[in-house]
């Protein structure tokens, strides 16, 4: 079974509080999500493989380490996932970025896919799928189904806030995939919003309603 990692770093938790706060405006919300995405990217890349190489310092030759292994791909789920991309690219600027466009039907809460564009070498990359919210889990599950259908073999999912109901569904559908989250909240309400959550992530990120 895939693991659920909750990033309890004090900086992530502090910034998440202000992301949740309803009086936080669009500009600050975006900046905070960007900063938290960078901090989470630092944690999620902890297990990247390294190899030794020769390096000539001003003093002498030395053995030192560089990243090895597969190249990375970041897949934001549109719209709100877009707000996490730049923060991750600050640490792994060479990563390619694919996009999966999904929205939840407000009545059924089922995800509807409207766009997909992935790097051409899907089978060769390690992917991090990002979205601030894992609520019912439908969007994350569907995005990862789309990636798998196109040949992706290695996938992690990263979000800011998850609901227990969404985590359970996600693990049923994708039991081998690890989840990286900043907070596991209490529950979903009758409208499918995470409680306490942060409200509608896309609307808060882009100032729409
Ligand atoms: C939000 C959020 C997730 C999804 C989570 O997107 O950004 O993608 O809901 O809910 P789920 O786990 O129940 O599927 P939304 O559908 O509001 O689209 P948007 O990002 O375009 O606003
Ligand atoms: N999507 C959001 O943006 N917020 C929620 O609480 C649930 C789904």
Automatic annotation (TrEMBL):
<dbReference type="Pfam" id="PF14681">
    <property type="entry name" value="UPRTase"/>
</dbReference>
<keyword id="KW-0328">Glycosyltransferase</keyword>
<dbReference type="InterPro" id="IPR005765">
    <property type="entry name" value="UPRT"/>
</dbReference>
<keyword id="KW-0342">GTP-binding</keyword>
<dbReference type="InterPro" id="IPR034332">
    <property type="entry name" value="Upp_B"/>
</dbReference>
<feature type="binding site">
    <location>
        <position position="104"/>
    </location>
    <ligand>
        <name>5-phospho-alpha-D-ribose 1-diphosphate</name>
    </ligand>
</feature>
<feature type="binding site">
    <location>
        <position position="200"/>
    </location>
    <ligand>
        <name>5-phospho-alpha-D-ribose 1-diphosphate</name>
    </ligand>
</feature>
<dbReference type="InterPro" id="IPR029057">
    <property type="entry name" value="PRTase-like"/>
</dbReference>
<comment type="pathway">
    <text>Pyrimidine metabolism; UMP biosynthesis via salvage pathway; UMP from uracil: step 1/1.</text>
</comment>
<feature type="binding site">
    <location>
        <position position="194"/>
    </location>
    <ligand>
        <name>uracil</name>
    </ligand>
</feature>
<feature type="binding site">
    <location>
        <begin position="199"/>
        <end position="201"/>
    </location>
    <ligand>
        <name>uracil</name>
    </ligand>
</feature>
<keyword id="KW-0547">Nucleotide-binding</keyword>
<feature type="binding site">
    <location>
        <position position="79"/>
    </location>
    <ligand>
        <name>5-phospho-alpha-D-ribose 1-diphosphate</name>
    </ligand>
</feature>
<dbReference type="GO" id="GO:0044206">
    <property type="term" value="P:UMP salvage"/>
</dbReference>
<dbReference type="GO" id="GO:0005525">
    <property type="term" value="F:GTP binding"/>
</dbReference>
<keyword id="KW-0460">Magnesium</keyword>
<dbReference type="GO" id="GO:0004845">
    <property type="term" value="F:uracil phosphoribosyltransferase activity"/>
</dbReference>
<dbReference type="InterPro" id="IPR050054">
    <property type="entry name" value="UPRTase/APRTase"/>
</dbReference>
<feature type="domain" description="Phosphoribosyltransferase">
    <location>
        <begin position="6"/>
        <end position="208"/>
    </location>
</feature>
<protein>
    <recommendedName>
        <fullName>Uracil phosphoribosyltransferase</fullName>
        <ecNumber>2.4.2.9</ecNumber>
    </recommendedName>
</protein>
<feature type="binding site">
    <location>
        <begin position="131"/>
        <end position="139"/>
    </location>
    <ligand>
        <name>5-phospho-alpha-D-ribose 1-diphosphate</name>
    </ligand>
</feature>
<keyword id="KW-0021">Allosteric enzyme</keyword>
<keyword id="KW-0808">Transferase</keyword>
<comment type="similarity">
    <text>Belongs to the UPRTase family.</text>
</comment>
<dbReference type="GO" id="GO:0006223">
    <property type="term" value="P:uracil salvage"/>
</dbReference>
<dbReference type="GO" id="GO:0000287">
    <property type="term" value="F:magnesium ion binding"/>
</dbReference>
<comment type="function">
    <text>Catalyzes the conversion of uracil and 5-phospho-alpha-D-ribose 1-diphosphate (PRPP) to UMP and diphosphate.</text>
</comment>
<dbReference type="GO" id="GO:0005737">
    <property type="term" value="C:cytoplasm"/>
</dbReference>
<dbReference type="InterPro" id="IPR000836">
    <property type="entry name" value="PRTase_dom"/>
</dbReference>
């Amino acid at each position: 079974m895939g693991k659920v990692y909750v990033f309890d770093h004090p900086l992530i938790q502090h910034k998440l509080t202000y992301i949740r706060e309803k009086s936080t405006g669009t500009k600050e919300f975006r900046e905070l999500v960007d900063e938290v995405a960078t901090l989470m990217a630092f944690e999620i890349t902890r297990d990247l493989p390294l190899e030794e190489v020769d390096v000539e310092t001003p003093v002498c030759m030395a053995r030192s380490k560089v990243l090895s292994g597969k190249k990375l791909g970041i897949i934001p789920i549109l719209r709100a996932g877009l707000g996490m991309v730049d923060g991750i690219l600050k640490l792994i600027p060479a990563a390619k970025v694919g996009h999966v466009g999904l929205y939840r039907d407000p009545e059924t809460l089922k995800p509807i896919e409207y766009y997909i564009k992935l790097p051409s070498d899907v089978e060769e990359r390690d992917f991090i799928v990002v979205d601030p919210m894992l609520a019912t889990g439908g969007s994350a599950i569907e995005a990862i189904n789309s990636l798998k259908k196109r040949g992706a073999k290695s996938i992690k999912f990263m979000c800011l806030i998850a609901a227990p109901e969404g985590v359970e569904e996600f693990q049923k559908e994708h039991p081998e995939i690890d989840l990286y989250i900043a907070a596991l909240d209490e529950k979903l309400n009758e409208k499918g919003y995470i409680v306490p959550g942060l409200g509608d992530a896309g609307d808060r990120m882009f100032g729409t309603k």
